[in-house]
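INFO  loader      accepted 1 record
INFO  loader      residues=164
INFO  predictor   begin
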Amino acid sequence: MTGRCERICHEIPDGEADYFDEIVRNVMITIEGMMPQLPAGRNGRPQMNHGSQQYQQWLKELERSSVALKSRDQFTLVQHLMVYNTALSIKKSCRVKDALKYVTEFHDRQSENKFKDIDRKLRMLYEKVRRKMVGGLIWLLCSICQLIYRVSCVCEADLSKVIP
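INFO  predictor   done
INFO  writer      dumping tokens
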């Protein structure tokens, strides 16, 4: 059994809330608070979980009512909630990196010369939390690198016993 590494597997539970979920949910709660008219739910907020299909359906209803009311501000807020809700879904089924990329691409596509006050507020909110999200992702990558380093050290230690 020469040259074999001891493999250590670290399982990461799927769907567990982490820093990304917390940051995005707080952003969504902040955006919900900016809504001029929030129907249904306790305290004007929906009773379903952020990132769920039910929440997405609630947002679609809000989008339709925003169009009917001709409320650009509410429509814009709903669009941003949809983006963050989709990001939570992407993170749950893929990776944080993919969800962060989705949110970043959405904000990069927006044309600042067409911004109104609500757009500026949402951009400032995004810029503020983006640093936290990227910082958390860097921390996660560093943790993974440390695990890889530990595994490689175990492997080298085993080889030093076998190879003089």
